[in-house]
Each structure stands twice: as C-alpha cells, then as structure tokens.
Amino acid sequence: MNFYVLHDEDNQQRLTENNHEEMSDFKELVECPSNKGHPRGGKRLKPMSVEIAHHKVIYDFVWTWTNECLVQQSVVQFLQDHHVTGYRLEPVKVKYRRGTQQPPQFQELRITGWGGVARPESGIQRQTRCPDCGYQRYSGTSDPSQIFDEQQWDGSDIFMIWPLPMYVLITERLKLLLEATTFKGYKIKTPQEAISPDGEPVKGFSPGKLRNYFLEERAHQIGDPLDIF
C-alpha cells in the first residue's frame, strides 16, 4: 500500500512560536536516577499555546517547529464529512505575535491511528532502553520507504509508525481527498522526501514513550506488548 507524509509547506516564516509564558510547564520533566544524559519531556500537562505571525491570509493548516499540526474548522469539517479516521482533536491557544486582533480558531490534530513498528528492512532497530527511566534510542533509517508494514496497520487514514510518532502518515485515500480541496498550508510528501530530504541516512530516533502521544488506555493496549508504553 502506498502511504505519504502530511507535512508543513517548507515555509519557516509561517511556523508558530511557543507562547513561552504559558508553555514553561507544558510537559512533565522526566529525569533518570542513573544517567544524567536522559532528561527529556514526557506527557503533556496542558494544551499547547502558540503565537503566529500576522499574515493577511491565515492558512487552513498551521504547523509548529516540532511538527504539531493545527487545523481550522474548515479542515475539521472536511475530515468529518469524509469519515476520515485515525485522529482526535485537542484545544490549542493561538494568538498573533503582535497586536490585539484575534486569529481564527484552531484545533490540534493528534494522531490515534497505528501503523505498527518500523520494519527491520528500513534499518531501524532499538539500540538502547534504560531500565531506570525507560529512555529509548533507535538507529536511523537507511530507507524510509521500507518503514511501513501493512500487517501491523490498523486501517486508519491517519497513523503513526514507531519510533517516528511526530510524522503524520496518511493513506492514498486521504491524499487524493486533500488534493481535491483548496486548502493551504501543507504539503504531501513521500516518506523519503519527509524523513530524509537530502537522501542521507537518518542518524537515529529518541521518541520517548507511546503514552506521550496516545491516550492512556490505547497506549497500554498497544505499548505494553511492545515494551514502549
């Protein structure tokens, strides 16, 4: 099956900035009792709060520097109308960096679809797992086109593959639906274009734990057997 990556439009001027006053305690801090090199952000503690540049046209899709996807109501309605699966919506605070005018309402598109663990043929394998804090380190991919194993996929239109949870993967069905719209603010890329745009092997991934991305019950269901909860 062909699959693609829903991505920002490669325009850094349109990426959001964190609202630092409200994002200081955005995530829990995970510290390791045995290794000082393992501190990292964990589960979210509250909704995102971001600032965007004041443009005459605010696009339907807006992205953060860390690849979170924010969508206007037009996109939400489109997803609902076409019975798109594999996502949930979460509130997000959005304001302009300057001025008092209010931008349109956005929601954050969070992935709930599961595409399994990357195939060994991609070159990805777990190298490290800390027994004290759960820190995981995976090798990089030499061939991003090989990460998808259809037998592990749950059939969702939007899904993630582990250990690449911040890549918004989509089916060809959703790709074709999006291409028939006039939405702005996104690109659809091949896995190679999105994950390794320069054609060089990716060095590695440290995704944290699955519960940082999925709701607790689903993270347990999927993550416990794989030791990634």
Structure explained in plain terms:
This protein is an alpha+beta fold. The chain has five helices and 16 strands. The strands form four sheets. The chain has a six-stranded mixed beta sheet with strand order 2-5-8-9-7-6. Strands 10-13-14-1-15 form a five-stranded mixed beta sheet. Strand 6 and strand 7 form a beta hairpin. The two termini are 27 Å apart.
Write the layout of secondary structure elements.
Layout: E1 3-7, E2 17-18, H1 20-23, E3 27-30, E4 40-44, E5 48-52, E6 61-63, E7 69-72, H2 73-81, E8 87-96, E9 106-111, E10 114-117, E11 126-129, E12 136-139, E13 158-162, E14 164-171, H3 172-179, E15 187-189, H4 191-195, E16 204-205, H5 216-226
Parallel strand pairs: 5-8, 10-13
Antiparallel strand pairs: 1-14, 1-15, 2-5, 3-4, 6-7, 7-9, 8-9, 11-12, 12-16, 13-14
Structure in a nutshell:
The protein has 229 residues and is of the alpha+beta class. It contains 5 helices and 16 strands. The strands form 4 sheets. The protein has a 6-stranded mixed sheet with strand order 2-5-8-9-7-6.
